[in-house]
Each structure stands twice: as structure tokens, then as C-alpha cells.
Amino acid sequence: MYIEQHDRDLLTIKAPAKINLFLEVLNKRPDGFHNINSLFQAVSLFDELTFESRKKPGVTISLNSEGSNLSTGSDNLISRAYFLMKDEFGLEKGLTVHLNKQIPIAAGLGGGSADGAAAIIACNLLFDLGLSQERMARLSAGIGSDLPFFFPGGQALVSGRGEEVTPVSLPTGYSLVLINPGVEVSTAEAYRALKRDLTKSPVRYTLPPCRDVKSLVEALRMAGNDFEDVLGVSCPELGRIRDILMDSGAQLARLSGSGPTMFGLFEGKPAVERDKIVSGGNWCLFTVSPITWPKLVP
């Protein structure tokens, strides 16, 4: 997260997308969620949110045209984050939010979760709540499994249903190409398509030490994304995208989250030919870098 405080009542936050460098879906939990084992990495694709405090309680969200098909009602994670904070701390003021949406929706990139986390940070700063980073992360788990990731520094091993976040330090000297085929994938439907026993807990992958990009890539090749086989049936374009990325020199091509965005990891400058992407119709391409950030609050 990158925070710019304009004045006491106004701030802007750049909320990053994330990719899953690997993702294992383990056993289904009694609460209906699934335990996961994943490596999250924040990347330099951002939603930009401007928050302004207002005297009247409640939250109002406006969108740029690119995000115009996103709900701004009570189911939006920004709204849910505000009302969580209102109920928890008795907030008497509200928020006016402008969202410049750049992260594709329902794409496996965590854009909604990043926006929700940004709203919690905004409430903390604008309403002088004095919350620690750890407290905000714990609160955020109440509205979404991926939100806690966005409070530490941008790299983490993630387990449980997503609320258990262990920061790691990994090399970042590589580039990424994200290709989204222009379809939305429901995370809930993707999980329903997986066949996971309620009690069986498979052996999870353990990430070894990675001192450079080469050793990171070698380690990642030993794992995968459990959604790829499931999604490949309903979205056969993913195989074509993978081929384009690998033919263009990617060291690794993989699905992010529950999809449908695929990423290619490149040790050097990516050489993906944009005319191949244009021919994909609604496909969109982003060239990004892995990012980290310092501790958000003491």
C-alpha cells in the first residue's frame, strides 16, 4: 500500500494487485471455507482510492468509467470495511470515496480485497483510531479471506482460509506479464468445482530458501495452482495464453488465484508480442514488477 496524506480529512491510497506464485487448496473446513497454502506477491498494478471524511455517517463510492460495472452498494468490500470499522469503534463520521479502478474485476488478482484493506487503513488514519498494522489485519479477516495480506510488506506465505499471513523476503529482480482473457470468474464457483474432502489434509508444499531469481523459479516449478485444471475446462483460452507466455521467454507461466488471469515470470525484459494479445479479442495485458513496502503504521 502506498499512502499519500493530503490533509487531515483527505488521503489517497494506491492499492496493489497480488498474484499467487503458487496456490494449493487443501482440505475443506467445517466452516465451509478451504484451507490453503499459497505464496502471495504484490505487483505494480494499482487501484487508486481517494478518501475524504464527512460529518454524516455512511459511505458513498464513485467510480471511474473502467470500473463502472462494479457494485458500489453494501456488498462492495469498501462499504463493508467502513461499516465494520463503524460498528467496532462507534464512528460518527462517514467517507466519500473515489475509486480509480485499474485492477480487473473477478480476475484472481485480489483487487477487491486490496480496496477493502485500503478502506480500513483510511478509517484508521482519517478518524485517528491509532490502530496497529496487526490489529487492522485481524479486523479485516472478518470481511474477506485475502484482506490480511495487504497490511504487511507485500510478500507472504498465506495459510488457513487466507487470514494466516507470514511475511517472507524474496528476490524481486524479475518482471511479470499478466494476461486476462476478459472473463470474470467467481471465486465461490471455482472452489465449488474443486473436489476436496472435508477432513483429508494433503501434505503441503514447503518453500525452500530462495536467494536469487533462479532459485525462486526452481522452487516455484515444484508447486502449482490447483485451480488450473478446473478452470482450463471452462476457459480453454488459458492454454493458449500459457503457450504465448512461454514462447515469449517466460521462465514460468501460471494461473493467479482462482483465475482467469495468467502471469508469466521473466528474468529479463518481457518480449510478449502485443499483436498476439490483440488477436485474443477481449484480452488485456499488463507488464508489472513485484513490489514491497515498508511498515504502514507502528
Describe this structure in words.
The chain has 298 residues and is of the alpha+beta class. It folds into two domains: 166 residues, Ribosomal Protein S5, domain 2, CATH 3.30.230; 114 residues, GHMP kinase, C-terminal domain (Alpha-Beta Plaits). Helix 1 packs parallel to helix 2.
Task: Throw out a few tags for this protein.
7-stranded mixed β-sheet, 298 residues, 4-stranded antiparallel β-sheet, 2 domains, Alpha-Beta Plaits, Ribosomal Protein S5, domain 2, alpha+beta
Write a concise synopsis of the structure shown:
With 298 residues, the protein is an alpha+beta fold. It contains eight helices and eleven strands. It has helices at residues 77-89, 111-126, 133-140, 187-193, 213-220, 227-234, 237-247, 274-278; strands at 2-7, 10-28, 34-54, 59-63, 94-100, 155-159, 164-167, 175-180, 252-255, 262-266, 284-288.
Record the SSE blueprint.
Blueprint: E1 2-7, E2 10-28, E3 34-54, E4 59-63, H1 77-89, E5 94-100, H2 111-126, H3 133-140, E6 155-159, E7 164-167, E8 175-180, H4 187-193, H5 213-220, H6 227-234, H7 237-247, E9 252-255, E10 262-266, H8 274-278, E11 284-288
Parallel strand pairs: 4-5
Antiparallel strand pairs: 1-2, 2-3, 3-5, 3-6, 6-7, 8-10, 8-11, 9-10
